[in-house]
Design a protein that fits this description.
Blueprint (H helix, E strand, L loop, with lengths): L16 E5 L3 H12 L3 E5 L25 H12 L8 E4 L2 E9 L6 E8 L6 E5 L1 E4 L3 E3 L16 E3 H7 L19 E8 L20 H19 L7 E6 L9 H11 L1 E4 L4 E5 L3 E8 L4 E7 L1 E6 L1 E3 L3 H8 L24 E3 L9 H17 L4
Parallel strand pairs: 1-2, 1-7, 2-3, 7-18, 9-16, 10-11, 10-16, 11-12
Antiparallel strand pairs: 4-5, 5-6, 8-17, 13-14, 14-15
Helix pairs in contact: 1-2, 1-7
């Protein structure tokens, strides 16, 4: 979807136009912030609709909000791009991709000429902008990369993203096993899948970093699963949850009280499972070394959820050449030594998971801060 401009923009550069690459939580939050300040914003999104990865996530509220911020990200999308309420100075270009970006120095600062390819358009769109925000998001780790986990081969081994999709939006139906559509009595979550590891099979990018989101979404999903199962049958025991982890990363406000409740309701095992195997009844056997005792153990569960981490957008390398913006050893855009998402190129910024792993709240806050820097730079 593209509105409001011909393929060749005839208007002169006036310093108030911003190009935002990516319409996920960061890009959308930035677009809203910039538009409220009166700047003209063009958002380029490769997918057919805005929202990014967060568009696939479910609300994790139980009898109270658990501050996963999925609803905030999705509300931003409605505010920015909804047919009736969207600001007139935001133009969304879906099925679109940056083809070329040229920089021209001026006394007032650099001017960028962006050439944008659009699906279904014979001619590319050309825009002159004063600022570029790179908010191209991330890619979830593909657990089929690790054969020992059996993802895609062993029934009822699913990823955290799969569980997001299985969780009923109305919270009125239980989570069901994919193999036979029955509610699981016990579920294991395995943390740090695709994170904090430098095993050769995880190349080409190094993944010796924490993805920053896996603990928070796993525990929130686990709480939601227990909540729904208890609501469905008050006479039965809620779904049993076991969390295999090296440690739990602190996140969000009131984390300690939230974590204390989780420890009362779930079992936490200090271990990093090394192999999953199919068991009778479409169950899954988890083999692991118990860290406190150094003993080899195994347990069997109705379902296993792999808490997959954040990987850099696979298009980052290609975009790096177009933007003349380096990526770091892990594949994220490099802003080392710069403040507030700025880069070494004047007028160009990076925000959200294009820069580093972070949760929705962090991506939104960072994007809004970067937008504030751009707004503050405008001439009075």
């Amino acid at each position: 979807m593209s509105q409001g401009l011909s393929n060749m923009d005839p208007k002169p550069m006036n310093g108030s136009r911003v190009l935002v690459l990516g319409a996920g939580p960061a890009g959308t939050a930035a677009a809203l912030e910039l538009s409220c300040a009166g700047l003209e914003v063009h958002v380029v999104e490769k997918a057919s609709k805005p929202g990014g990865q967060a568009g696939e996530y479910s609300c994790k509220a139980t009898d109270q909000c658990l501050r996963c911020n999925v609803c905030l990200a999705q509300e931003h999308v409605r505010q920015a791009y909804g047919a009736e309420k969207s600001p007139k100075n935001i133009t969304l270009h879906t099925n679109a991709e940056l083809k070329e970006l040229k920089q021209t120095p001026t006394q007032a600062g650099p001017v960028y000429t962006a050439v944008i390819d659009q699906l279904g358009q014979a001619e590319p769109l050309t825009l002159e902008v004063a600022h570029v925000m790179v908010c191209t998001g991330f890619d979830p780790y593909d657990p089929s990369d690790n054969n020992a986990l059996g993802y895609g081969k062993i029934p009822n081994v699913i990823s955290g993203l799969d569980m997001e999709k299985l969780s009923p939006a109305d919270h009125l139906q239980p989570v069901l096993r994919p193999s036979d559509q029955t509610p699981p009595k016990n579920i294991a979550f395995i943390q740090c899948v695709g994170s904090r590891n430098e095993k050769p099979h995880r190349c080409p990018e190094r993944t010796n970093y924490c993805s920053a989101v896996c603990c928070s979404y796993a525990l929130r999903l686990a709480r939601l699963i227990r909540h729904i199962s208890a609501k469905m049958d008050s006479q039965a025991e809620p779904t049993e949850i076991t969390v295999f982890n090296m440690d739990i990363q602190r996140f969000g406000r009131d984390f300690e009280s939230f974590y204390a409740q989780c420890k009362e309701q779930m079992r936490f095992i200090k271990a990093r499972p090394y192999q999953l195997a199919a068991a009778d009844g479409d169950r899954v056997t988890v083999r692991y070394e118990d860290q406190p005792t150094c003993q080899q153990k195994e347990e069997t569960f109705d379902m296993v959820v792999l808490s997959v981490g954040i990987r850099p957008n696979p298009d980052n390398a290609k975009a790096s050449a177009k933007l003349d913006l380096p990526v770091n050893e892990q594949g994220f855009f490099d802003t080392a030594g710069c403040l507030a998402g700025a880069t070494a190129r004047g007028g160009m910024y990076v925000a959200g998971t294009a820069r580093a792993p972070m949760d929705i709240a962090g991506a939104i806050a960072e994007a809004q801060a970067v937008a504030g820097t751009i707004i503050a730079s405008q001439p009075e």
